[in-house]
Amino acid sequence: MISLKRLVQAMRTFFRRLYWLLTLGFGLALVYSFFGRTYLSQWRSYLDLASFILIVGWVGVNALLVYHHHFQFRDLQMEEVDQMDGEEFERFCVYLLRRNGFKRLKTTKASGDQGIDIIGTKKKKTVGFQCKRYEGQVGNKAVQEAYSGHSFYQCDEAAVITNSEFTDAAKELADQLEVMLIDRPHLKRLMRRLPS
């Protein structure tokens, strides 16, 4: 039986290919509109309609994608963040970091990420982020993973982001290793930059 994760991945691949096919059609429609109308006059009535549909369709799909990308976490509340799974929380953190001035954000591979989930740059410093969507307190392990991962990825700084709180031991270790901790109250402050 196919797992839900594999089904979602297959659907994403299908829609990505469909999008590139639409983009190819858009390019051909533009070429026809600018250069081919005079040479293909006997099919003009069909090709004009087809090129119009392709151009409008491509523009409409891209407008929806831009809107979704910009407003996907619009008016998000902390309770909704608490309901996210790990992968969605990671995507949310990338979006949130971008809204808070980080550039060149990229995620590491899901398995074997060496303790860093996201790498971003701000003020000429590269920061490696470990994302932890937890219900309980986050302990030393997350701090240790972020610290070792930032060395592996050659980042200037390490940070752990969580929707929860850190244990006292984790805070003490983070101070000693100079790992930045972003806990629930700090995350709420960062979320003020979300579109509303």
TrEMBL record:
Domain Restriction endonuclease type IV Mrr: 82-191
GO molecular function: DNA binding; restriction endodeoxyribonuclease activity
InterPro entries linked to this entry: Restrct_endonuc-II-like, Restrct_endonuc_IV_Mrr, tRNA_endonuc-like_dom_sf, Type_IV_Methyl-Rstrct_Enzyme
Keywords: Hydrolase, Membrane, Transmembrane, Transmembrane helix
Transmembrane parts of this sequence: 20-40, 46-67
Pfam families on file: Mrr_cat
Keyword Cytoplasm: no
Taxonomy, superkingdom: Bacteria
SUPFAM superfamilies: Restriction endonuclease-like (SSF52980)
Alphabetical GO biological process terms: DNA restriction-modification system
Name of the molecule in the record: 5-methylcytosine-specific restriction enzyme MRR
The species this protein was found in: Lacticaseibacillus camelliae DSM 22697 = JCM 13995
